[in-house]
Amino acid sequence: MKDPIKKTLTVPLSAADAFALFTTEMDTWWPKDPFSVKGAKSTVTFPDHKNGDIVETGEDGSKNVWGTLIAYEPGKYLAFSWHPGRAPEEATMVTVSFTETEDGTRCDLTHGGFNTLGDTADAVSTSYLRGWDMVLGCYASAAKIPAVA
Hints:
alpha+beta; 7 strands; globular
């Protein structure tokens, strides 16, 4: 069994804005090249309610469910199953908490449950260890870009 991956970063946004950027605005910052199933021109939709699916839609309209939202507390916490390109039975679990600080909002991401992947658990978790660094780097960069009014 592989230990959960834990990543922490602080973004210069309120908790509500950091949460919205991570969820409803995911399509604006997620690095779809190389981290997608349907390609760089796909779109990613994050649900705004528990039991909703995180869906990637390809240019051709085909869809791939990346995971399902299990917990949703806007501005504070979310948890979702995670299985882009895999069957739902092979889902791992991602949680993200948002805590306001003097410098903005601390985002704590934990990705675990790799034991569901059997023999590939170590390889998959190792790839996510590096992958989350790139993904969260893109998120942090988006958080520093002021919104266009």
